[in-house]
Design brief:
- InterPro entries: Phi-like, Prp3_C, RWD_dom, RWDD2A-B_C, UBQ-conjugating_enzyme/RWD.
- It comes from Clytia hemisphaerica.
- This is RWD domain-containing protein.
- With 297 residues, the protein is an alpha+beta fold.
- The protein folds into 2 domains: 138 residues, Ubiquitin Conjugating Enzyme (Roll), CATH 3.10.110; 95 residues, Alpha-Beta Plaits, CATH 3.30.70.100.
- Helix content is 39%, strand content 21%.
- It is built from 9 helices and 9 strands.
- The strands form 2 sheets. It has a 5-stranded mixed β-sheet with strand order 8-5-7-6-9. Strands 1-2-3-4 form a 4-stranded antiparallel β-sheet.
- Helix 1 packs across helix 2.
- The longest helix has 21 residues.
- The radius of gyration is 21 Å and the shape is globular.
């Protein structure tokens, strides 16, 4: 939805200032813990510093990206819990915000339909005004009409069928992200891997990496759900059918984290981990360089 307007430094300072003021209003409206959650808290810190220094520091800032945890009552009985992910282009409100809706209670088709309707609604709003509150109120008022009942029991039956029948193909997938910093994203990765019965691991930091293995359709649904979150970049670097799983559970891994915010891992140790699990050949395919194990002497 972005038109990519070019802004001068002064215009960008004013735009970021206005965006921060709008976010402050939303924070006041959703004061409960977990109401408004920053995808990466450092984005807010950098934006505030940029505003306060009138564009002198830092030299580069990222787009504001955050999530709102919301709920609404459907048919006077069901409490529908959902998450609205928002990414503001630097030239917002001249450009439209990037939006996605996530709910564990809704099916994939329902989420696709509500997102389509939401995007159509956004197009009816002025493109030079701050519109986040209107978007939130519209979503709370209308999401219920796209909801046809809690899918928890359906997922349980599907999971049981997969476990008992084991007729689906096993698939592995390697996902590569520019970075994985957010504690909330890291928690989502762990929770969703368990929801879909996947095994493997995640590697937070810069770059970020997720390896998953499990029933093919569950792997695909996990990837679809993960893509709905705001990322600087996310790619599927490899996908293949496998005969059996390598891992027995899903864990977040750490290999001697270092750097200013412990966002860099020791890739020599990571390569050894891959070799120990018969995956050493994937290092070059994922990162484009040969892996090396450190001399422990």
């Amino acid at each position: 939805m972005s038109n990519n307007y070019t802004l001068t430094k002064d215009e960008l300072v004013r735009t970021i200032t206005d965006q921060l003021q709008e976010v402050e209003i939303l924070t006041a409206m959703f004061p409960e813990e977990g109401g408004l959650v920053w995808t990466d808290p450092s984005i807010l810190i950098d934006a505030e510093e940029y505003r306060d220094s009138e564009g002198c520091s830092p030299n580069c800032i990222q787009c504001l990206a955050f999530e709102l945890n919301l709920n609404t009552e459907v048919n006077n009985q069901t409490n529908l819990v959902f998450k609205l992910s928002i990414k503001l282009p630097k030239d917002y409100p001249l450009s439209r915000p990037e939006l996605s809706v996530i709910s564990d209670q809704m099916s994939r088709e329902e989420l696709i339909n509500i997102k389509k309707a939401l995007n159509e609604f956004v197009l009816t709003l002025p493109n030079d005004e701050h519109i986040l509150l209107e978007i939130i109120l519209w979503l709370k008022d209308n999401i219920g009409s796209y909801y046809n009942g809690d899918k928890t029991s359906q997922q349980a039956e599907s999971s049981k069928a997969n476990t008992e029948g084991n007729t689906d193909i096993l698939t592995s997938m390697w996902l590569y992200m520019h970075h994985i910093y957010s504690k909330h994203k890291r928690k989502d990765i762990l929770n969703w891997s368990h929801d879909f019965g996947l095994t493997g691991f995640s590697l937070p930091g810069k770059p970020g990496l997720v390896y998953i293995e499990g029933q093919s359709k569950n792997v695909e649904e996990f990837f679809d759900r993960l893509k709905s979150l705001p990322w600087k970049s996310i790619q599927c670097r490899s996908k293949e059918d496998i005969e059996k799983r390598i891992f027995t559970d899903f864990k977040e891994m750490s290999f001697d984290p270092h750097g200013s915010r412990d966002y860099h891992m020791d890739f020599g140790l990571f390569y050894k981990f891959l070799v120990d699990h018969g995956l050493g050949h994937m290092f070059k395919e994922i990162f484009g360089i040969e892996g090396q194990i450190k001399d422990e002497k």
